[in-house]
Each structure stands twice: as structure tokens, then as C-alpha cells.
What does this fold into?
Amino acid sequence: MRLEQKIMAEMKEAMKLKNEGALRGLRAIKAEIIKAKTEPGAGGEIDEATELKFLQKMMKQRKDSLEIFEQQNREDLALKEREEIEIIAKFLPQPLSAGELKNELQKIISETGAASAADLGKVMGVASKRLAGKADGKAISTAVKELLGN
It folds into this structure.
């Protein structure tokens, strides 16, 4: 089932249950889907990679906002962000643990023949594509630097 169909089904359920938090998060995702479908060159269709990309972007935006709201002691707004984060997370792949991430990066390092910090870009290019949606870019970068001895 495509993301858009899943979102619509979840929206119907959230409306029946009168779950405002879930409905708000689902509507935000639906808005991103519509925006992506109407962009030039999209042809009214979006692929899984595009869906994953905008879901990750939405997740990052919500986490950044949550951090700010918590610093400012705005629990009312922080609660809304947590609800939306929970909804968006349902549609993202399960993130890798730190150990799994390092194992995957070890494989990529050996495949690319990277030996030092100078090869960081080579490893990051492959890792970013292969681990898209499974790990945060910042976490990948930190782990690669550590493994390459930087």
C-alpha cells in the first residue's frame, strides 16, 4: 500500500476516534505528499525515495521545534510536537542501533577501500544512499569519522 493510501486510512480512523494529535500529524504528511506531487517534473507521482526524504525532513523539523519548546518551557507546544513525531515515526523505517550502524559502515568502508579521514567523502556518499531513512546523516558522519580515526 502506498504512503498516500496509508495516510488516508489512518486519517479516517483518527477522525472516527476524534484524535486531534494524530489528525494534525497525518494532515501535515498529506500536505507534503500533495506538495511533492505538484512540483515541476513530478508528473503527479512520487516514488518511495521522495516519500522517505520528506518524512525525514518533517521528523527533523519536529525534533528541532521540540527542543526549542522544551528550552522555553512551552510544554503545550512541546506536547503537540511529540504527538506529530510519534505519527511521522510510524511511516519511517526502523532506525539502526549504534552497533548495527557501525557494522554497516564497516562493510561500506571495506567496499570502498577507505583507509583514512581523507576518504570520508567517498564513504559518506555510499553510506548516505544505502542507509537513507535508517540512520540520521549526523549519526552516520560521526560514526564514519570515528571508524576512520578522525
Remarks:
- The chain has a mean pLDDT of 86.
- The longest helix spans residues 48-71.
